[in-house]
Write a structure and sequence with these properties.
about 350 residues; single chain; binds acetyl coenzyme *A; 2 domains; globular; three-stranded antiparallel β-sheet
């Protein structure tokens, strides 16, 4: 058996495909290059949800429903107390989502897409002692998230960058959190239960918990000249470099390039510290060289989390909220997979190999 279930096919899907050798991501028949930077979050969400609910959801309709659902989500914030605010943002967000009603219908799905987008910015403001800002239903999902985070109208570049991020990470084959969502859906539990299981799987540092530590690494390295010695000693201590390596990709993660492209207009507009970009370039180059020298038989390249860290930092999200933003974008993929599993799948119930003692014969 393989402990990581690599190469095991555990679901059939029409949602997305990760080609680890070609470095290609397909979402509903379109390549990531066609989508990121060219479509909005609402468009890609409508694409993923198409055919999975009785009511069709064209993008414009979804945009309206999301706007209304963001407004409704505000009512759930009255339960936030000091205990919740002391938790890491993704845990506090998960706790609030756990209070939402479960179900399998489009209304539940839209509520689950909208609520985290309101909860996360509100939690970040509340912990600074500031009042949460009300959503603006007529803004796009990406623009409203940024407006609720910062209290100012985002620029076109900022909205486009967050849209590109949300599109880039909307779905990604049978990764750990999506598998968790499908397992829960296969039991007949509702979409909220699937999303909660998925968030719990996402937050680990080997999955969606990596981008905060990427920024810690850049801060700790400090300047380009330090990149090589810092990386060498981290690897000597047996540590892993956050933002590098992937279970499926044996080449560069295409999402890293989509995010690097999305970052460019922000750099041009002076919204990203040029020194930080130069440092990230130096760290990426040094890490790739060193990983190649040390692991010649295991291709290790940059993954989505490296540029996620730079992009979300540039947009004003604090680093401990990065995993929460990831969850906001990935929820649509989780919901689509959960619906696909519920509609076409079976109860997921693999077997384990017992290696413990056996009772003595009587
Ligand atoms: N830095 C240093 N060495 C690494 C890294 C890394 N980032 N990733 C893998 N390796 C090494 C391992 O130490 C191992 O070496 P060994 O054979 O000498 O023991 C070898 O490469 C193979 O590693 P595996 O554990 O088999 O790789 P796996 O497919 O399980 O790991 C993972 C994938 C978890 C993403 C890994 O690359 C990692 O830990 N990366 C850092 C965390 C990270 O960036 N996570 C985000 C992933 S993207 C996402 O989930 C959204």
């Amino acid at each position: 058996m393989k402990y990581g279930l690599e190469d095991v096919i555990a679901a059939e899907t029409t949602l997305s495909d990760v080609d680890g050798l070609a470095g290609r991501l397909i979402i509903k028949g379109r390549s990531l290059d066609e989508l990121a930077g060219h479509t909005t979050y609402e468009e890609v969400a409508a694409l993923l949800l198409e055919g999975l609910f009785e009511t069709p959801v064209p993008p414009q309709q979804l945009a309206l429903l999301l706007g209304q659902a963001r407004l409704q989500a505000l009512a759930h914030l009255h339960t936030v107390d000091a205990t919740l605010l002391a938790l890491p943002p993704v845990d506090a967000m998960r706790a609030l989502i756990a209070r939402l009603p479960d179900g399998d219908d489009l209304e539940t799905a839209v509520r689950l897409l909208a609520a985290p987008a309101v909860f996360l910015p509100a939690l970040l403001r509340l912990r600074q002692g500031r009042e949460p800002l009300a959503p603006q239903a007529d803004l796009s999902h990406a623009a409203d998230i940024l407006a609720m985070l910062t209290g100012t109208a985002p620029s076109a570049e900022q909205t486009a960058a967050l849209d590109a991020y949300l599109v880039t990470i909307c779905d990604h084959g049978l990764n750990a959190s999506t598998f968790a969502a499908r397992v829960v859906a296969s039991t007949g539990a509702g979409l909220a239960s699937s999303v909660l299981a998925a968030i719990s799987a996402l937050k680990g540092p080997l999955h969606g918990g990596a981008p905060g530590p990427v920024l810690d690494m850049l801060d700790s390295i400090g300047r380009p000249l330090n990149a090589r010695p810092w990386i060498e000693s981290a690897l000597d201590r047996g540590e892993r470099l956050m933002g590098f390596g992937h279970r499926v990709y044996r080449v560069r993660d295409p999402r890293a390039d989509a995010l690097k492209t999305a970052l460019r207009p922000l750099v041009k507009a002076g919204k990203v510290d040029a020194d930080r970009v130069a440092l990230a370039d130096a760290v990426e180059r040094a890490a790739l060289e060193i990983l190649k020298e040390r692991k010649p038989d295991r291709p290790l390249d940059v993954n989505v989390e490296f540029y996620t860290a730079l992009l979300l930092d540039a947009l004003g999200f604090p680093r401990d909220a990065f995993t929460g933003v990831f969850a906001i974008g990935r929820t649509v993929g989780w919901i689509a997979h959960a619906r696909e599993q519920a509609l076409h799948g079976r109860l997921i119930r693999p077997r384990s190999l017992y290696t413990g003692p056996v009772p003595q014969a009587a």
